[in-house]
Amino acid sequence: MKSNVRIGIIGLGGRGMGLLEIIILKMKDVEVVAVCDLHEDRRNRAADVIEMAGNSRPIATSHYNEVLDMASVDAVVITTSWSSHIHIAIDAMEKGKYAACEVGGAYSIQECWKLVEAYERTKVPCMLLENCCYGRDELMVLNMVKLGVFGELVHASGGYHHDLRYEIANGKENRHYRLNEYVHRNCENYPTHELGPIAKVLDINRGNRMMSLVSVSSKAAGMQEYLKNKSANSELANTRFMQGDIVTTIIKCDRGETLTLTLDTTLPRYYSRGFTVRGTKALFMEDNRSLFIDGEHDKYETKWKTQWDNADGYREKYDHPIWQSYLREGVREGHDGMDWLVFKAFFDSVKSGTQTPIDVYDMAAWMSISSLSEDSIAMGGQPVAIPDFTNGKWIGAK
After folding, report:
1. Nearest to 277 by CA among 117, 137, 397, 168
2. In CATH, what number does 133-335+349-395 get?
3. pLDDT digit string (tens) for 130-167?
4. Which helix (H) or strand (E) holds 30?
């Protein structure tokens, strides 16, 4: 059992620097010994921040393989652009380094299989940093499902409902990869924030699996309208965006459940992940943070208004043990505390030399939805089979 973890951070844009400053530097059992980014100013700034925090100045490089070759590095945190996540994770496993990979979507099924094959060849764990699996509501619902409160699960839904028009429009100035994604692709490009918690609730890869999907996309009008009114960049204002404003994906599972994912990032709206779980005995709905439990809420309608109970009233009874402990210790920064929990889970696995709670099979299955949705959309919403990346191991897995 290691007492501390020495890491390299690969990718130091907005997310990488945010995690470094808000989470990683505040973890007493984690030492950053290397930083890597293609841009010199980013890696130098990261090294400065680490040194100013009272730590030894890390090695700073533009070549991530230099980080992977360092004997002093136990694990790497990958916060690069979406298109490089899987490739760097594979190289990390090949070099014997635990890999923590930020979220995104895959570009092909082949790269998902290569990810799985790299793990099965090396047995070095790789964890997708899906922080939403550690949200308080998501974990409370998971706990209630395991306790039988929801009865038999039938349907779940979620979405990435996030107005990103400003970020996309300023992609060139901020050296952010999302702009090119929206210009050239049309898919469910960011599926794991909603899918991760649903997959845990539905036992995906652990007694259940996703079988097939259908994806459809609306037209792309939101960015053009935004740029016409907001941007002085005439070149970008005349750019044709491929990414539809609303992408809807419906997935069927082996046990018969369905789930719906929605991408909604280029129209005006408030932020929501829309996490909803439906069972034969209960309903949870994130958007009004409500629970409806059969037998407790017997008046289904009162003057056409459904009777609900606020989810906060069930905290004492159903808060997940992870959050019960977290509240006693003190909730930290980072997306309402989720970031700290997902990194703690990863670093605890590195220290103990054990498997990560979100494993490489989860990562491949969840990220594959982007590539598969792209195929389905291109074929006018035709059904597409979802591969079994566990090669049958899901049947007996717990």
Report:
1. 137
2. 3.30.360.10
3. 999 999 999 999 999 999 999 999 999 999 999 999 99
4. strand 30-36
